[in-house]
Amino acid sequence: MNQDNLILAGQSYSSRLIVGTGKYKDFAETRAAVDASGAEIITVAIRRVNIGQNAGESSLLDFLPPSEFVYLPNTAGCYSAEDAVRTLRLARELLDGHSLVKLEVLGDQQSLYPNVIETIAAAKTLVADGFQVMVYTSDDPIIAKQLEDIGCIAIMPLASLIGSGMGILNPWNLQLIRERVSIPVLVDAGVGTASDAAIAMELGCDGVLMNTAIAAAQNPVLMASAMNKAVKAGREAFLAGRMPRKLYSAIPSSPTGGLIGKA
Hints:
The radius of gyration is 20 Å and the shape is globular. It is 37% helix and 16% strand. It is built from 9 helices and 10 strands. The strands form 3 sheets. A 5-stranded parallel sheet has the order 5-4-3-10-9. The chain has helices spanning 27-37, 60-63, 81-94, 116-128, 141-150, 171-180, 194-202, 212-215, 220-240; strands at 6-8, 11-13, 17-20, 41-45, 70-74, 100-103, 132-137, 154-157, 186-188, 207-210. By secondary structure, the chain is of the alpha/beta class.
C-alpha cells in the first residue's frame, strides 16, 4: 500500500480527489469526467440523481457501477437534521447497507451556507446509527473539533460558498482546522479552478471534493483532468515543504564564488 494514500474509515484510496455526479449534460459526460479526474470516490445527491429510487428511469448505477467506484451518498438539498437522516437511511437501503456518507445540512437556499446546529444534531444521530459520516461544515475550527468528537470520520469545511467558484477565502481557518483535528480534512465547496485545488492541498488538507468546478466548465472532461493533476501537485508541494517567504534574500540563487575573474 502506498504510504501516502488517503485513509477514510480504514480504507485506502490512491486519489485524494472526490468528485460529484450532478450538473452534467448526461450520464455519459459524467462518466468521462469522472474517469479523467482519477477519482475513486464519487458523491451522489440522493434527492436529485436516480440510483434506483425512480424505477424505469436511466440510473447513474448503469454508467458508474458500484463495482468500480465507491459511492458517497450526500444530503444536498436538506435543510433539517430530520430530512438529512431520512435521506441517508434511504441511501443505505438503495446501496445494500452502504454506510459511508456525506452529511450536509444547509441554512438557506440563497447562500447554501451550512446550518451547523442542525448538522451537529444529524451527525449525532447518524453516528449512533452506524454511519461513517464525512461532514460538510463551516470553516470554524471549534465546530470542526466538536464534529470529530461526535465520531465523524472526516471534516469537510467550505473554501467559499457552494457553487461560487470563489476559491479559498480564508486559508488561516483551514490551517487551524487541520491543526485542531486528527481526522482527515477535505476542502468542500468553492473551488473554481485547478489552482484552488492545489492551494488547498498545499495548506495540508487531505483532499478536495468538487462538483460544479468541473461540471460547469466549458470543457468538463478537460477540467477534470486538470483537477486530477492539481491535487497531486499540491500534495507533493506540501510534502516537499516550500521555501520560506522573504521580502529580500541575502543569499543569491546562484553562487558567485568560483566564477571566472572572481577571487
